[in-house]
């Protein structure tokens, strides 16, 4: 969720309660600088319309996670219909509640893929800190990626919505900032009053489709290599 400078200043002055959005450490950590090969996709603030670069970053993140999961599944075949994507949230302790809520939302919304917390073999991680870009999903395209949750932005926008939106990129959904509040991937487009953190029926269907067809293709490629 990228913010313009005025919006970022407003976010810093809101002072929303920790109970609503999670406790923000007094000395906030700085965001890690992505490597030069990193693609970044952010949840845009109101007024930001996205770009071709953002769309490519979203797709790159999904493909990296899909490849990582396919390689693990090929090494340990299972008859389970749903695939499990493991994430590590240890680097984002302030957002433990929001990450747990986001995981629960997605796991109850889709059937072909499930999110699971873990510290070993994770396909992506969550991180926290301060970044002028806001919250974003980042990947180097080689099966290693992370979701960065920005403190200031999560004070201005509904924190669970921000987390669930960024997690949507992991599952293959692109941004659609012009959509209504009922559409999770509309991100910050509907404004700060939007608190919906649940994907709509079209988004749920798309994720199920991606993880049925996309994983099959990824597995076929892995088995050929």
TrEMBL record:
It comes from the Bacteria. One of its GO terms (biological process) is proteolysis. Residues 1-28 form the signal peptide. It holds the Pfam family Peptidase_M7. Disulfide bonds join 181-194. Binds 1 zinc ion per subunit. Binds 1 Ca(2+) ion per subunit. It catalyses: Hydrolyzes proteins with a preference for Tyr or Phe in the P1' position. Has no action on amino-acid p-nitroanilides. It is found in: Secreted. Zn(2+) binds at residues 165, 169, 175. Gene3D superfamilies: Collagenase (Catalytic Domain). GO terms for molecular function: metalloendopeptidase activity; zinc ion binding. The keyword Glycosyltransferase does not apply. The active site is at residue 166. It is an enzyme of class 3 (hydrolase). This is Extracellular small neutral protease. It comes from Streptomyces liliiviolaceus. The gene is snpA.
């Amino acid at each position: 969720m990228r913010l313009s400078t005025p919006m970022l200043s407003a976010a810093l002055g809101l002072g929303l309660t920790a109970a609503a959005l999670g406790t923000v450490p007094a000395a906030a950590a700085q965001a890690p600088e992505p490597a030069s090969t990193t693609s970044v996709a952010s949840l845009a603030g109101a007024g930001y319309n996205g770009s071709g670069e953002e769309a490519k970053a979203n797709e790159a993140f999904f493909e990296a996670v899909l490849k990582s999961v396919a390689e693990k599944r090929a090494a340990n075949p299972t008859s389970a219909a749903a695939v499990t994507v493991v994430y590590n949230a240890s680097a984002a302790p302030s957002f433990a509640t929001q990450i747990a809520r986001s995981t629960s939302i997605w796991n109850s919304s889709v059937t072909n893929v499930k999110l699971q917390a873990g510290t070993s073999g994770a396909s992506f991680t969550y991180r926290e800190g301060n970044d002028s870009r806001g919250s974003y999903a980042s990947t180097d395209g080689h099966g290693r990626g992370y979701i960065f949750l920005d403190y200031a932005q999560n004070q201005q926008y509904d924190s669970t919505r921000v987390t669930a939106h960024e997690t949507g990129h992991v599952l293959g959904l692109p941004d659609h900032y012009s959509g209504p509040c009922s559409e999770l991937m509309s991100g910050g487009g509907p404004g700060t009053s939007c608190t919906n953190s649940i994907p709509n029926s079209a988004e749920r269907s798309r994720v199920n489709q991606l993880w049925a067809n996309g994983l099959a293709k990824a597995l076929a490629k892995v088995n050929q290599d």
